[in-house]
Amino acid sequence: MRVGVRVHQLPDTAILRFFAPGSPRTPETTGAMVNASVRQNRAAGATSETAETYWSPLIQGEALTLEIELPAGVDPRTVRIALPRLSHLFRLPFAEPGPAASAATTCHQDPPCEPAWDQPSRATALLPHTDASGATGVCTATLLNDAAPSTYIPFLLTAQHCLSEQTRASSIEAVWFHRADNCGGPSRMLQSVSGGADLLYAAKSTDTSLLRLRQPPPAGAVFSGWSTTLPPLGTAVIAIHYQRGARQAIARGRVTEYLNCADVDHCADDADPDAIHYLRVTWSSGFTDPGGSGSGLFLESGQLVGTLSGGFSDCDHPQGPDDYGRFDLAYRERLRKWIGRPAAAESISPATR
Q1: What is the pTM of this model?
Q2: Exposure class string for 11-37: b at 16+ Cβ within 10 A, else e
Q3: pLDDT value at residue 343
């Protein structure tokens, strides 16, 4: 579960800890970080309870304790909070699947079975996110490298239909390395980064959102490379995503069609009716699943060229096509402001933190 903390007043020096009773008192955050999240929500135009809510990390168990520690001399009356929302999940999004999901899981392929794709795999994060009502969902995102060789700014690329509002971005908990430890093995190495993100850009025409994590990714995470060249039809591609919040999966296919956004489920009212907004991909092995929205489409060079918007593939119809928003188009429209050079960069290589 996770609890929504409504903040009326909180000292920056406070330390907040969220834990299941009887477990170690972690993770923790500071009043300064909570207040900064609330300010960011308000600056983006959110109002009332939604703007003032800080969502805790996901805590496993049937009860959750919030502990607030104040430095000596700080008046406890300066803490004014409420707990009006609780998001209760019947299992953690990144838990191993139960028997009901086992059949679908066997249709997927583990990235560690293909070591050549280790870098894109380590760049791919699972994003649990919670809305104002307390409903929690999951999407997938890719950690992007930028054009400055000395920086490691944690930019995350995902789908606009997943994260189009600052309050939802503030609620995310980014999860890395939820994948098989080895080909066909269990998943035991995942690491979470809580604290949310700042929403920098959201475009419906290519179903693209760019976030900046407020906390650094874990050691071993890879900042993915990308390309601003439109892939020709027939180009071989791979996809890495989290299927239904379970562990990471990989699919192989080819770009088979170019689409205008009017031809897919997600389209802006003012989009150019003659422009190519999406890449349609047909799979030769593997497929995508709900929870994979926002995940990256990669060239064989490992460079990202698209983000998953939706499609038709599933375990029974693995060759059903899926649609990816064009990264190169989103880059030219706005993404270059954060990740590019003054002159357009054609491609960027990955980097390891």
Answers
A1: 0.92
A2: beebebbbbeeeeeeebebbbebbbbb
A3: 55
* pLDDT tens digits for range 42-91: 999 998 889 999 999 999 888 999 999 999 999 999 999 999 999 998 77
Residue indicated by tokens 């349609």 = 280
Backbone conformation region of residue 311, classed left if phi is above 0, alpha if psi is from -120 to 50, else beta: left
Structure token pair of residue 235 = 């180009």
236-242 vs 226-227, strand pairing mode: unpaired
Contact 195, 37 (CB under 8 A): yes
The H or E element that residue 328 is part of is: helix 327-330
Q: Which pLDDT does position 14 carry in this prediction?
A: 98
Residue at 162: amino acid letter: C
Contact between 225 and 304 under an 8 Å Cβ cutoff? The reply is yes
Reading phi first (left if > 0) and then psi (alpha if -120 to 50, else beta), residue 22 is in: left
Q: Which distant-in-sequence residues (6+ apart) come within 8 Å of 97 by Cβ? A: 104, 105, 244, 246
Q: Tens of pLDDT along 305-316?
A: 999 999 888 777
Does position 97 have pLDDT exceeding 80, yes or no?
A: no
- 306 touches 264 (CB < 8 A): no
What is the domain partition of the chain in residue ranges? Answer: 2-87, 110-353
> Which tokens belong to 134?
């307390």
Give the integer Cα–Cα distance in Å for 329 and 281: 17
3-class DSSP state for residue 50?
A: helix
In whole angstroms, give the CA distance from residue 144 to residue 72.
42
Give tens-digit pLDDT for 154-199. Answer: 999 999 999 999 999 999 999 999 888 888 777 778 899 999 999 9
Tokens standing for 201?
């850009």
Please, are residues 289 and 273 in contact by the beta-carbon 8 Å criterion?
no
Distance of CA 270 to the CA centre of its chain: 27
8-state DSSP, 112: G
Fold classification of 110-353 (topology level): Thrombin, subunit H (2.40.10)
